[in-house]
Amino acid sequence: MQASLPIHEALKTLSWLIGKWVGNGLGEYPTITRFKYCEELEFTSLGQPLLNYTSRTWHAEKKNPMHFESGFLRIKPGTRDVAFMISHNFGLSEVEEGQVEDLKLVTTSQDIKRMSFAKDPGVTQIHREYSLQGDVLSLTLSMATTNTPLTKHLTVTYKKIS
After folding, report:
1. CA-CA distance, 35 to 134, in Å (whole number)?
2. How many other β-carbons are positioned within 10 Å of the β-carbon of residue 131?
3. How far apart are CA 68 and CA 23, in angstroms?
4. What is the pLDDT of residues 24-33, one digit of tens each?
5. Distance (Å, rounded) from C-alpha 128 to C-alpha 105?
6. How far apart are alpha carbons 70 and 26 in whole angstroms?
7. Separation of alpha carbons 95 and 61, rounded Å
8. Which residues contact residue 69 at a Cβ distance below 8 angstroms, ignoring those fewer than 6 apart?
9. pLDDT tens digit string along 35-68?
10. How many angstroms separate the CA atoms of 155 and 138, rounded?
């Protein structure tokens, strides 16, 4: 694989996401105790009209792994319309759709599937908002489950490390 591939023309509006980011976050939800966590996420380009995506989190104090997800962020060429396809290590796959505008990306789940033996309650909706201000990338993630309406779940701020 080449070390540095050109970015597909369709990705110009998403190029601000490309790189490896590390951050600190806060998790909260009505059914859990608040917690601090760390996250490393990466958006990479292989020259196609999509970005490869990975995210891994670990507990801020205990350092144990918490969550892993991977997928693809695809843009419809000639538009600001995006699809974010993500698989989670706890047995969930989803397709989110939305738009990129300037230095902000907003997506909401359109379809969520889960393995038959996934833990209840089931996730029924996810909404993500990424934004870049200066050199700080922020994410706010809201989630709904079969028991809880759409509610803020995660907030994290990142610094680019590569």
Report:
1. 27
2. 16
3. 15
4. 999 999 999 9
5. 8
6. 20
7. 32
8. 53, 54, 55, 86, 87, 88, 89
9. 999 999 999 999 999 999 999 999 999 999 999 9
10. 7
- Record the tokens describing residue 57, joined without a space: 């989190």
Cis peptide before 65 (omega within 30 of 0): no
How many residues appear in the chain? 162
State the amino acid at position 119 in one-letter form.
Answer: K
What does the DSSP assignment read for 8-48? Answer: PGGGGGGGGG-EEEEEEEEE--TTS--EEEEEEEEEEE-SS
The model scores a pTM over 0.85: yes
Cα–Cα distance, 129 to 102 (Å, whole number): 13
Q: Which of 128, 73, 117 is nearest to 92 (CA)?
A: 117
DSSP string, 76-128: -TTSSEEEEEEEETTTEEEEEEEEEETTEEEEEEEEEEE-TTPPSSPEEEEEE
Q: Kindly state the tokens that stand for 105.
A: 């990306």
Question: Would strands 19-27 and 123-133 be described as parallel, antiparallel, or unpaired?
Answer: unpaired
8 Å CB contact between 132 and 105: no
CB of 106 within 8 A of CB of 139? no
